[in-house]
Amino acid sequence: MAERQQTLAAPAPVTGLGLFSGRKATVTFCPADVNHGIVFVRTDLGPDARIPALVQNVVKRPRRTTIRLGDASVDTIEHCMSAMAALGVDNARVEIDGPEPPGLDGSSEGFYRAILKAGVEPQDADRRVVEVREPVVIRYEDAVLAAAPSDGPGAELIYELDYGDGPIGRQIQAFSTDRDDYGQELSRSRTFSTQNEAEAARAAGMFTHLSPQEILVIGHDGKPMAGNAFRFANEPVRHKMLDLIGDLYLLGAPIRGRVVAYKSGHPMNHQLVRQLVRQNRSQRLGALTLGEPKIDIRRLFRMMPHRYPMLLVDRVLEIDGDRRAIGVKNVTINEPFFAGHYPGTPIMPGVLIVEAMAQLSGVLIGQSLQQVGKLPVLLSLDRVKLRRPVTPGDQLLLEAESVRVRSRIAQMRCRAYVGEDTVAEAEVRFMMVDDDQD
């Protein structure tokens, strides 16, 4: 029987100083509707400063996981994500009044205990799980991170930390998400650094608000500095496991499979998640194309005002209420635009790929009850990226996700794929007008 999605039973606030920024902030884990996912909201920037905690919103920052969308960003989310993953929180609005959650003691225990106190409750929807179906291996210098299929119901994780002859040495930790106790075994493990790393960071102007009493700094003799003490004999590798669990939750769902890590860090974790997203999407979309369409061309004629040659959606394969839709545009040599774009080298114009994504968005917007009798008119395009050419014979898979739908404005996030490749993406805003308006 499928597991149910879960959200918080009540808001769970946590206040403290950011680990990197040193700025005071309050993060509040709030309940959210089914299929909402984990979304961070920068309340200091306004209610529209929303950033879904997904790997496509990750930006490069040293030694941490940062997400960004538009002008809004949130630093160091891995400990929050790890706690939510461990407690099975699928849907949450994570409100934060600054650029970084509290660092607390460098562990995830404060977040874990706050959510546990607030309570987690089931919701009326099945939980999605990302299953590893084919092996994926990421390598960087001597570091390796691999994911493989597993028969178990959850994730089997093994992490090997290897500092060689350094003060930390070699440590190994195993963890199973369906058998082991995260609260006891991992949540209390803290962010750490060697004495050399800490001195280099301070020289670069980082962590100047922290002292070795407040963060785990391991001296040249392999012992914590300034009277600090290990919480576990192998606390560093346990914290690396904690980070890995948080980064894997950027999949947008729990993972089922076996993951083996050797000296990996955040960049490799993100790269593995991106590979698993592509693998899962390809399998899911491939299965959809073999099934019966949810909306065929005859129904599309009744739902959309577009006609040849401007109707650029052939069928809708999947539609989840007013939240998400997947459609298809079969690109053939008979398309009228290929005659002039370009003779001898036919390429589908990028503006028409964007138009196809916008048309699918219009179908999705039409599923909202508050938009009955309204016509979505394109208002603006943001973060448009055209990643590879689309040519005759390609099947263009279109995906539209609802970001925000109001009475007069709708905002959608769109992507287009050919096979496993992302060919285009954009954020599209619409103005809603009366359907009979000129």
SSE layout and pairings?
Blueprint: E1 4-8, E2 12-17, E3 24-31, E4 38-42, E5 50-52, E6 58-59, E7 66-69, E8 72-74, H1 78-86, E9 92-96, H2 109-118, E10 120-126, E11 130-131, E12 136-140, E13 143-148, E14 155-162, E15 170-176, H3 182-185, E16 192-194, H4 195-203, E17 216-218, H5 235-248, E18 255-262, H6 266-290, H7 297-303, E19 315-320, E20 324-330, H8 350-365, E21 374-386, E22 395-405, E23 409-418, E24 421-434
Parallel strand pairs: 4-9, 11-18, 14-18, 16-17
Antiparallel strand pairs: 1-10, 2-3, 3-9, 4-5, 6-7, 7-8, 12-13, 13-18, 14-15, 19-20, 20-22, 21-24, 22-23, 23-24
Helix pairs in contact: 1-2, 1-5, 5-6
Rounded to the nearest angstrom, the distance between the terminal CA atoms is 51 Å
Number of helices: 8
Strand content: 25-35%
Percent of residues in helices comes to 10-25%
Descriptive overview:
This protein has 438 residues and is of the alpha+beta class. The protein has 8 helices and 24 strands. It has helices at residues 78-86, 109-118, 182-185, 195-203, 235-248, 266-290, 297-303, 350-365, and strands at 4-8, 12-17, 24-31, 38-42, 50-52, 58-59, 66-69, 72-74, 92-96, 120-126, 130-131, 136-140, 143-148, 155-162, 170-176, 192-194, 216-218, 255-262, 315-320, 324-330, 374-386, 395-405, 409-418, 421-434. The strands form 6 sheets. Strands 11, 12, 13, 14, 15 and 18 form a 6-stranded mixed β-sheet that branches. Helix 1 crosses helix 2 and helix 1 (78-86) crosses helix 5 (235-248). The N and C termini lie far apart (51 Å).
